[in-house]
Design brief:
Blueprint (H helix, E strand, L loop, with lengths): L9 E2 L1 H14 L4 H16 L10 H10 L9 E5 L3 E5 L5 H19 L1 E9 L6 H8 L4 E6 L20 E7 L2 E7 L6 H10 L8 E2 L5 E2 L7 E2 L5 H16 L23 E8 L7 H16 L14 H13 L1 E2 L2 H14 L7 H9 L1
Parallel strand pairs: 3-4
Antiparallel strand pairs: 1-12, 2-3, 4-11, 5-6, 5-11, 6-7, 8-9, 8-10
Length: 362
């Protein structure tokens, strides 16, 4: 058995795709489905969204093992109004449900100019931008939201009621790509857990304690704070409206956390994906020109300091370029789990800097 040194561990992009695909296949996920889920996780890690990338592979494997997620689920259309569809995920991995929603949305938007797809009976679907970027690369404007187990207290409240409830909007591709992917909380709960592990204090405004007062002590964090106070709470409620109420799924405060679901039962997560065809509005050519002007104007805006003005998605694009060349850095917990999986499956896994240089030279 290979022993991996995990301090400063990295994993190469292709090794990550091979490992994640092999692990999901071994868990019973059909080959093509396994590749799609692996691709979504690796692409997310490449873009620097580590909380929703390879770090989730172990959790997804646990959900498959416990039956929270069904490796052989059949995703079906249960309501069809032409430009509006409702899918039943049948307990599938949420990534597969989200990708199915994006495919249906793209097909219907090509016919109707706009299409909305809701998903019920699903599980955690990772980064929302996975689905909006797929729509954007087809020349569409994509929007995606999902319900999520409660972590965020309403503004002025004490108990968590809402999930981190992400919103993603994307359009364009390559250098002319707009990708907004944001939580409606100040920070994701994974960052709180990471600060606990590292013994580091929280940033001011991230969380509140059991009495509803702001706290910077990670062990005292009882609830996350909404982004922008009551405005962030409003956005979180809007996501719950679209992701849960509209799809007939339970609200956030009735959902189980990732890794804490009931064995043999999906987590009842709901998703909502919207696709808009610019050809039905300003027209493809005018939309493309307008998007380019929007992005270029923002990116060339006068700087207040040394750092450039950025458009949504620019930091993630920079991460992707670096990580494709240098590999994906891993936290210790993720590196350990991936190393165990790699050894068991007989495929390349995480490496340290010197190991990577030796592997690259071969």
């Amino acid at each position: 058995m290979t022993t991996h040194t995990l301090t400063g561990a990295l994993i190469e992009e292709q090794a990550a795709r091979t490992l994640a695909t092999a692990a999901l296949t071994a868990a019973g996920v059909p080959g093509d489905d396994a590749e799609q889920v692996a691709g979504a996780l690796v692409d997310t890690s490449l873009r620097g969204i580590d909380t929703h990338g390879l770090r989730l592979l172990g959790q997804y494997l646990d959900e498959l093992s416990s039956g929270v997620a069904d490796a052989r689920a059949r995703i079906t259309v249960v309501r069809d109004k032409g430009a509006g569809l409702l899918l039943d995920a049948d307990g599938a991995l949420g990534v597969l449900a989200g990708l199915a929603a994006a495919r249906h949305a793209a097909e219907r938007a090509a016919r109707f100019g706009v299409a909305a797809v809701g998903v019920r009976a699903s599980n955690h679907f990772g980064a929302a931008s996975v689905y909006t970027r797929r729509l954007a690369r087809k020349g569409l404007v994509g929007l995606a939201v999902t319900s999520a187990a409660s972590r965020v207290a309403p503004f002025g409240g004490v108990e968590p009621l809402f999930g981190t409830n992400p919103i993603s909007v994307a359009a364009g591709s390559d250098e002319r790509e707009f990708v907004l992917d944001m939580a409606t909380s100040q920070v994701c709960f994974g960052e709180i857990k990471q600060r606990r592990t590292e013994g580091r204090r929280l940033d001011r405004g991230w969380a509140t304690d059991a009495t509803g007062r702001p706290t910077e002590a990670p062990d005292m964090a009882h609830a996350l704070s909404p982004l922008g106070g009551y405005k962030g709470q409003g956005l979180a409620m809007a996501v719950t409206l679209l992701g849960a109420v509209l799809t007939g799924m339970p609200p956030d405060w009735r959902l189980s956390q990732v890794g804490a679901g009931t064995a043999g039962r999906d987590r009842q997560v709901g998703h909502f994906v919207l696709a808009i065809d610019p050809a039905a509005f300003a027209g493809e050519e005018q939309f493309t020109a307008g998007l380019a002007e929007l992005l270029d104007t923002v990116r060339t805006a006068p700087r207040a300091g040394q750092e450039p003005v950025l458009a949504p998605g620019d930091p993630q694009l920079a991460h992707e370029r670096r990580r494709r060349a240098a590999g994906i850095p891993l936290d210790d917990g993720t590196a350990r789990r991936l190393a165990v999986l790699a050894d068991r499956l007989g495929v390349p896994g995480p490496v340290t800097g010197p190991e990577r240089e030796e592997a690259s030279a071969k």
